[in-house]
Every structure is written in C-alpha cells, then in structure tokens.
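Q: I'm teaching a short session on how sequence maps to structure, and I want students to see two examples side by side rather than one. Could you give me a first protein with its sequence written out and its structure tokens following it? Keep the formatting plain so it prints cleanly on a handout.
A: Of course. Example one:
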Amino acid sequence: MTMTADSVDIWTEYKRTGDKRLRDRLILTYAPLVKYVAGRLGTGLPAHVDEGDLVSYGLLGLMNAIERFDPNRDIKFETYAITRIKGAIIDELRSLDWVPRSVRSRAREIERGVVELEHKLHRPPTDEEVAGHLGITEEEFQDSLAQISRSSVAALDELWTISSSGGDTVALIDTLQDPNADDPSLEMSRTEMRDSLTGAIGRLPERERTVVQLYYYEELTLREIGEVLGVTESRVSQLHTKAILRLKGKLSGSLERASADRLR
C-alpha cells in the first residue's frame, strides 16, 4: 500500500479539513490491514473468539491511527497503523478477561521453572525435566502447554516496560532482528531489551527458534510450519508456546539483574 500522489493529496486534504468523507475513503483504503492483523492475532485463540469481532476491534484502532497520523513524519502509515490495530484488538481481548486464572498461573510456573532449570543445568531443559521440576507428569505438562497456547494472545505483541528508558515500552516482536532492515546494528543497540531478546532467541532449542522465525518473519501459518517441520499443527502450537515462555522467563531475569546492577 505505497502512497500514491492521489493518496498523499487525500491525506493532506483530510488533515486540513477533517472531512469525514475523506476519512471514510482512508478507512476503506487501509481496511485490509485490519483483516491481516486480525488473522494473525486470531491464530491459536479459542474457537469462540470470532475473527469478525477481532476485525471490529481492529477497525477502532485503524480509525484512531488515521486520526492521529502525521503524514509529514518519516514513517509509513502501514507501520504506524498496524501497531495501533494490534493494540486495540489486544486491549479489547484483555478487557474481556477470558483467560482462566489457573492457565495464567500455570504459564508463570512454567516460565519460572524453565529459568531455574536453565540456570542449574546450563542448557535448555527437556519437557520431562520441566514436568518433574513442577511436580506433574509429562502428559499434564503437554496438556498445560495446549491450554496456554489456546489462550495466548500473540505473545510477542505483549508490551514490556523498559526501566532504563524512563518507562518506555517495547513489543517483543519489534525487538527481533530483521535481516532485511537497513541498519540492524543500530536497531540492536536501541535498548537492553533488544540485546537480551536477541541472545535469548539464539539460545532457544533449534525447533523452537525455527518456529519463531517462520511465524514472525516468514509469516507462515502454524499449519504451514507443521508441514515444514513434519509435525502436526498442534505440536507447532506447543513449540511456539514453549518458546514464548522461555523468552519471557529469560527476559524477566535479565531485566531484574540489570536493575540490580544499576542500583549497586
């Protein structure tokens, strides 16, 4: 959706007049972005979460983006809008609070367990080791992963607060290294979170790292990733969930240690 001369004129005139008809033209022009984001976020959500509802939530984010966007800034509208659309959908889903507390609690337990075992073993723990550490069977552990993956809202879109930058926030997906970026080294140096996440992704077990790369950068669906890896879609969902839990656990520990070092 590269801006044409006509679209630039529409933006200029809309910002000058606030004409609702021009706003509606912009909404129609960029509506496919909402469908795209809703489809991506809808992957892995419970069956009762309707994609049409996600689109409705996302349209609010698109309208907000159109209202607030400054065409004179050196940023593509699509980039700006996608962030707003994601935020609107995730905020609405969180306000519904449909994720059971027991699932949230088990996810935190797994995060902490993985971190503790990695510190002890100096390597990523196996599923059997994590299950034993939590005092559950491996089957119960796999069931927990399935429940977490079904209730997960695009975990890499979750915003993290960076204590060293005055309370700024960053989404995990925005800190992943993009091999096609103009200046990866500049992007990598922007925050401690970026550095920590890059290292954490590199230390993921190979299959989990592959799932993260294929899902977030190659934009394959879970089914397509399953075909690449030769496993079921359900298994890919579990691998994705384990990768996110590992990353969240590692990053929580890294940020806590960084904060403690600054206070010394």
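Q: Perfect. Now a second example for contrast.
A: Example two:
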Amino acid sequence: MKPDISVIMSVYNGETYLAEAIESVRNQIFKNWELIIINDCSTDSTSKILADFSLRDDRIKVHTNEVNLRLPTSLNKAISLSSGKYIARMDADDICLPDRLEKQYKFMEQNPDVALSSCRFMTVKNGVYMSGGAGGRCDSKALKAMLLVANPLLHPGVIAKSVVMKEFNYDVTLTCTEDLELWTRMAMKNQKIEILDECLLIYRLHDKQITSTTLERQHTEVLKIQQKYYESLLVKMDEKMQEFYISGIYFKENADIDKFLEYAKWLRSVSTKNFDRNTINYALLEILAEYKRCGISKQDIIKAMLNFNPLFLVKEIMRRKRSAGKDIEKCMKVANALELKQTSGTKEFPIFENR
C-alpha cells in the first residue's frame, strides 16, 4: 500500500539518539507511513542500528551514501525516493510525539491551500524541558513577515506536499541554512506556509548541533539568502544595513536600540507593497522580545516600544500573553502525559518557559 506520509531523515554518526528518534516514528498513532533514512557515511554504530530497525519494520528504508554528501544533498535524495502524498522531516536526535503524523496529516488535508507547515514543539537539554516558540503567530501572513527577521519554522517539525518538495528541493550549495533558504524561496513564489498550533515534537538541544558550531558560516549564508528575499519582496539592503541586520537583527549578537529604530523605520517604509503595517510591526515586536532576553535595559525597550502605534501595541501584547499561556499549558499537558520531569532541583515537574 502506498504510504500517505514519507518521513525523511539523514544521519551522520547519530548513534546516541538515533534509536529513540526512530522508535518515536514507529510509535505513531498514524500508521500509513514510510521512513526513508539516508546514512551519510557514518563511522559509528549508526549502520548497525539502522540495519536492525529495517529488519524489524519494512516501512523503514535505509539508503547508504558511498561518499559523505552532507544534509541538503542527502535530503534531496530522500525526497526523490519518497512515494507519499506528503513529506515530513525528522532529525536523528529529536522525538516525535505519538500524535504528530496524525494531526499534521489531518491539518494538511483540511487546508489544501497550504504547501508546507510546521508545528509547536518542546526543547530538551540536559533533561530539562521547555516550551518552544510560545506566543508566536501561526498564520501565513505573519510567517512571511517573520522570515524577514528570523527563521520561525522548526525544520524537523515540517510536513509538506510531496509535489512541492520535489519541485523546490534544498539548495545543495548551503551547509547549515538549507531550511531558511527553502522557506524564503517558497514564500517568494507565494507558496502558503503555516504552523499547526499543536505541540508535536521534542527538539533536542546539544553542543554538537550545526547551529552551535558554525556561526561564521551561518552569517555568510543567511545574509546571502536574506538579500534575495529582501530584493524580491522589498528592496536591496545597503552595506551599512546588511552589517547591522546580520549582527543586530537576525543573530542579535550586537543588539542596539538606536540602530533597531533606524532599521524599523526603514523596514516600514519599504514594505508597504507586500506587507500590511500591523504584520511588519508584529515581526519587529518579536525582535524586541528577543532583545529583552538578550539583556537590553527596560528603559531602552520602552524607548523602542514608544515607536509603535499604542492601540496595536496593547492588542498585540495581550494577544501574545494569552497565546503564550495557552501554548505553555499545552506543553505541560503533553509533558505530564509522557511523565517528562525536571532532572535537577527539587520540583517534580517540567520547567516551561518561552524560548
């Protein structure tokens, strides 16, 4: 029987968490799936783990690269081998909650105009669980605007129409930002992208991740991607704007309120054709929320907030507070059902905070 969903994964030396990740797919309530795993020349016990699972479950299909092709090329290979109506991403160190595929399949079936969607998630690091992305908007307009300033989609939580993924594919010239490039390229082609407002994945944070080891390369790749996105939907950023954008907006290493206000004024002025004002202000307010977590003073945050329409500001802060509360509550229910507990301290329940 042809699978409804093809789950694709690429793994390189993933022995530590691989079995748990695969089991989380096998334990899905939704049963009509195939799991296509590309073994990208692993040298640890990954090959044995994969061989054992493929013998136990014929829905698991393992393909081994002759040479190390890296993630984007391996994912494109998995896409070409897939036969499902939808393609779902999964990483070798994350955990699908049991109802992930069921809820994502239902969402895509009920929203045929959506090309790709992701989901809410929890993070886990050193045994401590936290909510991820709580309070953020899930609609396509907001995500298209958020892509101007950040990557709002969790890559391993994505599901998409197979025909769309086979048309677009990943850019194999990139090494650590292939997901952002794909989302922006799809958005430029008016492919509808949304987030399902359900907590469906546990996203593992650890020191070996690409996102924590290749910052300089990320800077270069992100700037290249975002220049294309800005030129397509807005205007080209000059060199001065590029410098602050990459360090002060996207990565927030050099957060600066005065430069932020200059950027905000510029963004509002050049975005009127393709974005409504409130959606752009929403994206800017999300940056300020991150600035607050970066240690920017309360006085500077207030200074920046005074540049927003007061009515919009009140409505958005109230909306975000309500939404974040609901998102965290959903995560806590999931955690309690799975008996996920804090491993340090005296409290016997998970820690949940907005990332």
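Q: What should students look for in example two?
A: Point them to this: The chain is about 45% helix and 15% strand. Also worth mentioning: The first helix runs from residue 18 to 26.
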